Amino acid sequence: MQVLRLLVISALIGLTLSTPARALSLLRDPDIEYALKQLAAPLLKAAGLSPTRVDILVIDDRSLNAFVVDREHIFIHSGLLLKMKTAPMLQAVIAHEAAHIANGHLMRRTVNLRTARTAAGLGAALAAAAAVAAGAGEAAGAAAIGASNSAMRMFMSHTRAEENAADQSGLRFMAQSGVDPQGAVEVMDIFRGQEALSRYRQDPYARTHPLSADRFRVVRRLAAGYADKTRDNPEANYWFARAKGKLSAFQRAPKWTLNRAGEFGYADVKLMRQAVAYHRLSQTSKAVRTIDQAIAHRPNDPFLLELKGQILMESRNFGAAAAAYGHAVNMAPDNALILGSYGRALMAQGQTGKAQTYLEKARSLDGRDARVMRDLAAAYAQQGNKGMASLVTAERYAMTGRLEDAGLHAQRASDLLPRGSTGWRRAQDVLSAAKAAEKKRR
Q: Which InterPro entries does the record associate with it (predicted)?
């Protein structure tokens, strides 16, 4: 599981309107993201959205919230994911956010979104929501968005009319997908009474998704009307267990995980959670033996192999980590996170040229992973390609909002790369963004 630092404009995600920004983390884990895609796919299809184009991403925050800022990303706080007790509850959250996209509720934010975007076309897929920095240990760069608190509140908050419309659409998407609509009622029940609290005591979800007693009654009535559409979905239940089980194993104390490892009823999920707990207790041999047992249950599962690679990599067993990641890549050749991890393991072994190939593919598939960009720049530098190293570094800084630093590296890349080449043109894009930002500051 990778933890990438984010610096977000806090009002954009309904956290607090009294401070200008707050550092958060985006959790990137191929297993969890794949599980969320499996849960979301039928709902997105019912909403007329493409499951391959809409990513469900997890924000590392204990508060309860979920939100959208564009048509390609649904963000869920880890606290809300862990609060969900069943697959239909989590799917209800996804369906509701998908409804905001499908119903065009983001259209009124177009002007604010354009203002908030920086370094368009440079892989800044998180747009106004976040600026990703290059790893948990590094300082995040500032993404300055000059808008008033009232404008930001308007940007993120949904009106009651929008909420009612999203409720109806979300429940319809659930019914069309055979998902138990009672999950929506159970989610809303968590937030009942929030509006009686002061704004600063409310969960962020309640602040951006206004809830009323009338709205709750309508949802309950609609859910009852769709009850006969429900179908049992063992696959959804399994992937819910994978997502919540792995997330909780990394976020809860290892002892807590070991005491509850089997709570979901799946042998491989139990072993996976135990392996994470042992790894976090620095019991590497035990962790590897346990994850191998999980792999024996699902030998064609690339994500269990990816976890084995992570355990070995973080235990500095680079050769075995590269072997595990390589096996995972063979099973999931287009998973950017696994490709990036494999490239990182190869770099640790000194196989820079081979690492560069996999890091380039990872970057082409997912342009928002700043850690891959950092590793790729290092690979170019070690290969003597200083122009490309400067270019990728410039693009990483641009993506994080550090446009002054981006401009310096882009100028260096422009001087080193052949004029008119693809790399040179990319450097010009960064330079243009940096100059525009400098002009605006003046």
A: Mito/Outer_Membr_Metalloprot, Peptidase_M48, TPR-like_helical_dom_sf, TPR_rpt
